[in-house]
Amino acid sequence: MMQSDELPSEFVRVASAAEVRPGTARACAIGEREVALFNVDGEFFALENTCPHQGGPIADGTLEGTLVTCPWHGWCFDVRTGKMTLGEFASIDRYAVRQAGREIYVSLEPVA
Ligand code: FES
After folding, report:
1. If you measure from the C-alpha of residue 55 to the centroid of ligand 1, how many angstroms do you get, rounded to a whole number?
2. Is residue 51 part of a domain?
3. What does the DSSP assignment read for 35-62?
4. pTM of the predicted model, to two decimals?
5. Is there a domain that residue 112 lies in?
6. Ligand 1 pocket, 86 CB below 6 A?
7. What is the pLDDT of residues 80-108, one digit of tens each?
8. For residue 79, what is the domain's CATH number?
9. Is residue 21 part of a domain?
């Protein structure tokens, strides 16, 4: 989850916590965008659901700890930062996540 001073003001509900089990991810629509919502041991993270390589759906990738591997060609990203693990040349936009009770909310816009 993000520090409070980084939080954008507008959030939208995307799922109930129980819908995304620990160690899994789920694609969620936010307007015309789609985000991948990850549950890492009960902590939620959200990234744009589009791999910067060729657009693979990273919500369908393999999640191991905080690392997700794209299902198409194996690029790997840290779900906490959106950064590629192999270097600085690629990253995925990330979204702030808030949990209120059992509901998960994601920022309408990516965070810097
Ligand atoms: S589209 Fe993700 S690694 Fe190629």
Report:
1. 6
2. yes
3. EEEEEETTEEEEEESS-TTT---GGGSE
4. 0.90
5. no
6. no
7. 999 999 988 899 999 999 999 999 999 99
8. 2.102.10.10
9. yes
